Amino acid sequence: MKSEMMKKLEQVAFERTKPFCYGCYRQAPTGVCLSCGSDDLMRELPGAGVEYGLNWVIEHILREELTPVDLEAEFESSMEGCYADETQIGFIKVNTLWAIQQLDPTAWDMAKQEWVDSEEQEERIMTFDNGSTYYKVEDLESLE
Predict the structure, then answer these.
(1) How many domains does the chain have?
(2) What CA–CA distance (Å, rounded) separates 125 from 134?
(3) pTM confidence score
(4) Looking at the record's lineage, which domain of life comes first (predicted)?
(5) Both 39 and 79 in a single domain?
């Protein structure tokens, strides 16, 4: 799935950019610069810049057009359905999720990472930077 999504992102990036001769500083829509004859062309993304390859275009599209998943908020939302709203500890009533986070932050972090791994395996979220940023697959699929 990830390789398919990467191919789709590369296709979107390719379609949104134009071949660009940096030496002559002009577009080369035919794939060869009409001024100097060079076929060693960069890709121009109007309004963003020029550079070799498509990775920078993909990064720009992800950063500018998609909202990264707020893992903490999504995980909390997922957990809300699993536990009661309030828990009584002695004579105090507290929010259950707050109590778990405060009383055992290590377990909370481990559970969150397991949830992230599960969401990724079930192809609901995807990362392209080794887990620093995640995007919803449905948002990625909507790119054109």
Answers:
(1) 2
(2) 6
(3) 0.81
(4) Bacteria
(5) no
Reported as a single tens digit per residue, the pLDDT across 94-106 is 999 999 999 999 9
> Considering the domain boundaries, does residue 140 fall inside one?
no
- Which residue's entry shows tokens 């940023």? 133
Cβ atoms of 37 and 31 within 8 Å: the answer is: no
C-alpha atoms less than 13 angstroms from C-alpha of 12 in its C-beta half-sphere: 20
Q: How far apart (Å, rounded) are the C-alpha atoms in residues 99 and 55?
A: 43
pLDDT per residue as tens digits for the range 11-29: 999 999 999 999 999 999 9
Percentage above 90 pLDDT, the chain: 90
- Angle of the 96-103 helix axis to the 71-80 helix axis, nearest 10: 120
- Final residue belonging to a domain, choices 65, 83, 104: 65
Beta strands in 1-144 (DSSP E): 18-21, 26-27, 42-45, 49-51, 86-89, 92-95, 125-127, 134-136
Q: Which domain holds residue 47?
A: 2-65
The values of phi and psi at residue 123, to 5°, are 60, 40
Does residue 141 have a pLDDT over 90?
yes
pLDDT over 80 at 2, yes or no:
no
